[in-house]
Amino acid sequence: MNNLSEELAALLDGEELLAVPDVSERLGVVVTKVHDLLNTNKLVAYVVDGKKYIPAVLLDGDELNKFVGSAVTVLKDNHFTDEEILRFLFTPDDTLPGRPVDALHGHGAREVIRRAQAMAF
Fold first, then answer.
1. Largest distance between two CA atoms of the chain
2. Contact (Cβ atoms closer than 8 angstroms) between residue 17 and residue 46
3. Residue 93 in 3-state DSSP?
4. Which of 1, 2, 77, 99 lies deepest, with the highest CB count within 10 Å?
């Protein structure tokens, strides 16, 4: 495991991680729709032993958080890997305060997306 993978594993420790079929069930869509969300950069997955897991906090209950999709798209468009995106979203940031992933569920969402855009340059 490389340093980025170890760091990400530590950041995601204790997070609820959902397998693709579980996300499908939670969102009320077919499994292929979840794969589409991953392939169109609306969601990002954490891969363990070849299996994809989506942190539950990327969802709003039984819906996809629209700001998560925006942040992921901005970062993916600028060639960030899934691991780098997850590291950004789950690393605590005192200036927000908290983690960017949590800010995406509230008033800090636009600031997180602005920072993601700035990271690209």
1. 38
2. yes
3. strand
4. 99
Instruction: In whole angstroms, give the CA distance from residue 47 to residue 4.
Output: 13
* Predicted TM-score (pTM) of this structure: 0.92
61 phi and psi angles, rounded to 5 deg: 65, -110
Tell me the CA distances in angstroms from 83 to 22, 63, 107, 116, one per residue in order.
Answer: 21, 23, 25, 14
Average pLDDT over residues 3-11: 85
Closest CA to 119 of 69, 76, 59: 76
Q: Report the b/e string of 44-83 with b at 16+ CB within 10 A.
A: bbbeeeeebbbbebbbeeeebbebbbbbbbbbbeeebebb
- Write out the E strands in 27-79: 46-48, 51-55, 59-60, 63-64
Nearest to 45 by CA among 35, 32, 57, 54: 54
The number of beta carbons lying within 10 Å of the beta carbon of residue 18 is 21
| 3-class DSSP assignment, residue 19 | strand
